[in-house]
Amino acid sequence: MSLVDVENLWVKFPTRTGVVEAVRGVSLTLGRERLGIVGESGSGKSMTGRALLRLIRPPGVVTADRLRVQDTDILTASDREMRGLRGARVSMIMQDPKFSLNPVMPVGRQLVEALRAHERVSWAEAWKRSVQMLDEVAIRDPERVMGLYPHEVSGGMGQRIMIAMMLLPGPEVLIADEPTSALDVSVQLQVLDILDRLVKDRGMGLIFVSHDLNLVAKFCDRIAVMYAGRIVETCRAEDLHRATHPYTLGLLNAVPDLERPRDRLEVMRRDPAWREAPSVSARVNEVSA
Q1: Where exactly are the structural domains of the chain?
Q2: Residue with the larger pLDDT of the pair 201 and 106
Q3: 3-state secondary structure at position 239
Q4: Between the chain's N and C termini, which has fewer beta carbons within 10 Å?
C-alpha cells in the first residue's frame, strides 16, 4: 500500500483578476522511497506538499479525485484527525528554519513540546529523546544546543534542528521543502547524508522538493519535473540524463557543469503549449523508464 496516493490534485486561489491555478491535475504516489519534485520557483512544488497536509487555507481551494496519506482521506478528515496526522505520521521541513522556529523559545523547549504534542511522555523523557535526536542529526554538544535560542545557531544547525523536530514523533512520511536551499555546499551534503540515513534506517517515505535537478538526481529514487502547476516529465533518478521534455533539458543545460564547461549557459525557452499539455502521472506503476 502506498504511503501517499494523489490523483488529479488541483490548488486554486481566487483573485481580483481571476482564479490562479497553482497546482493543476497532479497525480503521484509515494512508497518507502525518495521522490524528488523539481522545477522553477512558482511551478507548484511547495503547494503540492502543503496540500498533502491540508495547510492551504481559504480562500485557497483544494480539489482532487483522490488525496490520501496512509489510511487517511485528506479531503474529508476532520480537523482533529488532521492534527493527529501532522507531525505524528507526516512531517514537513520548511525552507528556512529562521522562520519556522519560535524566536523567543529555547530550542530544547520547542523540541520537547513538539514531541509531547503527539505522545504522552514526561518532560524528562521528552528532553532525553530530544537530546538523542539532536545527536542523531550530527549536532555536537546537544545538551548545550538545547538551551540556545534560534538566533544563536547557524543556518545549517537550524536546519538540522528542524529535521530533528520533525523526526522526533517517528513519522512515516517526510516532506522536505527545499531543506538545503539556504545552506552552503558542505552543509548541504551533511543534511542530505542525515536525511538519507534516517530514511533508510526508519523505512520512511520522503518527498524532496527542490529546484536543483542535479542534486535531486544524486539523492532521490524517482523524479517528477513540474512546470506551471503540472508534472511534465517523470523518470527514475539514474535516467535523468535520458530526459526528453524540452523543459527538463532546459533546466539541465542552464546549470554549469565543471566536468564539461561551456562558453555560454543555455537560456530557458518556454513553449506556451507546455502549460496546456496534460499533467504526466508520477504514480509508481506509471513512471516512464
Answers
A1: 1-83+205-289
A2: 106
A3: helix
A4: C
> Parallel, antiparallel, or unpaired for β 205-210 and 173-177?
parallel
Q: How many CB atoms lie within 10 A of CB 115?
A: 23
Given a contact cutoff of 8 angstroms between Cβ atoms, the answer to whether 224 and 282 are in contact is yes
Q: Which three cell numbers stand for residue 73?
A: 482521506
| pLDDT tens readout for residues 254-276 | 877 777 777 887 788 888 888 88
Residues 232 and 58: beta-carbon distance below 8 Å: no
Residue 247, H or E segment: helix 246-253
Q: 130, 98, 92, 131: which is closest to 114 by C-alpha?
A: 130
C-alpha cell at 40: 522553477
* Residue 287 confidence (pLDDT) above 60: no
Q: Hey, what's the cell of 154?
A: 547557524
The 10s digit of each residue's pLDDT in 99-128 is 788 999 999 999 999 899 888 899 999 999
Query: Is-contact 50 56, C-beta < 8 A?
Result: yes
pTM above 0.85, yes or no: yes
Q: Tell me how far the alpha carbon of residue 282 is from its chain's centroid.
A: 15
Question: What is the structure's pLDDT at 183?
Answer: 67
Q: Can you tell me whether residue 108 is helix, strand or coil?
A: helix
The beta strand positions in 31-89, using DSSP E, are 34-38, 61-63, 66-69, 72-73
Q: Is the peptide bond before 59 cis (omega within 30 degrees of 0)?
A: yes
Beta carbons within 8 Å of 201's beta carbon, 6+ residues apart: none
CATH architecture designation of domain 1-83+205-289: 3-Layer(aba) Sandwich (3.40)
Q: Which three cell numbers stand for residue 172?
A: 512515516
What digits encode the pLDDT tens for the residues 128-186? 999 998 988 888 899 999 999 999 998 778 888 988 888 888 888 999 988 876 666 77
